[in-house]
Amino acid sequence: MQGKIYLVATPIGNLEDITLRAIRILKEVDIIVAEDTRQTLKLLNHFEISKQMISYHRHSSEEKKKEIIEKVKEGKNIALVSDAGTPVISDPGEEIVQTALEKQIEVIPIPGPCALIAALITSGIDAKEFLFLGFLPLNKKIRKEKLNIIKDSKQTTILYEAPHKLTQTLEDLQEITNSRKIVLAREITKIHEEYITGTAKELVEKIKEPKGEFVIVIEKNNEQEENIFENMSLDEHYKYYENLRI
Ligand code: SAM
Fold first, then answer.
1. Is residue 56 within 8 Å of 96, Cβ to Cβ?
2. Contact assessment for residue 49 and residue 29, using Cβ atoms and an 8 Å cutoff
3. The domain 116-224: what is its CATH number?
4. Which of 86, 90, 133, 161 has most ligand 1 atoms within 8 Å of its beta carbon, as the pocket-test mutant?
5. Is-above-0.85 flag for pTM?
6. Considering the domain 5-113, what is its CATH architecture?
7. Torsion angle, CA of 61/67/68/73, rounded to 10 degrees?
8. What b-and-e string marks burial along 162-177, b requiring 16 or more CB atoms within 10 Å of the CB?
9. Domains 5-113 and 116-224 share a fold
10. What does the domain layout of the chain look like in residue ranges?
């Protein structure tokens, strides 16, 4: 009988955020497939788990993927983890999931921490609908396309960003977001955790030397919405807000 693949979310800072189920699965599986085995070893040591590990990262070969899938087909149960948070979300694992599903291998999520969700729920920005764009690409053309999407977005947008690229990204956002509110969720669940709110311009002025990990939560573009109200009757106004309710 073939084994299963468990996608196990791990803490994004505070180790207390691991779930009881995640600990049990990490203990029970035959092999842990990790983005960086040294990083995962720290987690395993903390929870006194000793387990065979295989590394699988964004530069891993097709062969490596096949080797992992082969082990599952032989009957091994595998837990896939990334360095932090939920695997597959801006992290490796997607190709393994796709191949596993093609081969009728069962893929089971073990939900837990995810930086984008933690940032969104704490931001105070509309969480009913949102668009997650991961890291903005460096390629100028594709970056501009993504920035245009953010510019017009009628949904809250969430981005991941590395500290050394944060200022450039905020400067780019400054050109397209005007007075829209932005929340920077920094070092979530860690010692220097903070949530900094402002327009892109204010944030560029406030944060001179970005340090740590950041999630950027951007308020939706309200411009057109403000305009449509001008032509609405009182009744239409009422219906509009009724429809927004969940
Ligand atoms: N899979 C992860 C998840 O579930 O959130 C995300 C991995 S992605 C490679 C790493 C990025 O996530 C960081 O550059 C940062 O934007 C965000 N991130 C991860 N941990 C964070 C934290 N503790 N505080 C703020 N942002 C964090």
1. yes
2. no
3. 3.30.950.10
4. 90
5. yes
6. 3-Layer(aba) Sandwich (3.40)
7. 150
8. eeeebbebbebbbebb
9. no
10. 5-113, 116-224
**Number of residues in the chain:** 246
Q: What is the pLDDT of residue 25?
A: 98
Query: For residue 159, which atom of ligand 1 is closest to its CA?
Result: 16
Rounded Cα–Cα distance for residues 150 and 130 (Å): 11
**Tens digits of per-residue pLDDT, 101-123?**
999 999 999 999 999 999 999 99
Query: Which parts of 120-179 are beta strand (E)?
Result: 130-135, 156-161
Q: Which of 88, 90, 91 is nearest to 107 (CA)?
A: 88
Residues having CB within 6 Å of any atom of ligand 1: 12-13, 82, 84-86, 89-91, 114-116, 160-162, 185, 187-190, 213-215
Rounded Cα distance, 195 and 206, in Å: 13
Amino acid 35 reads: E
Q: What is the mean pLDDT of the chain?
A: 95
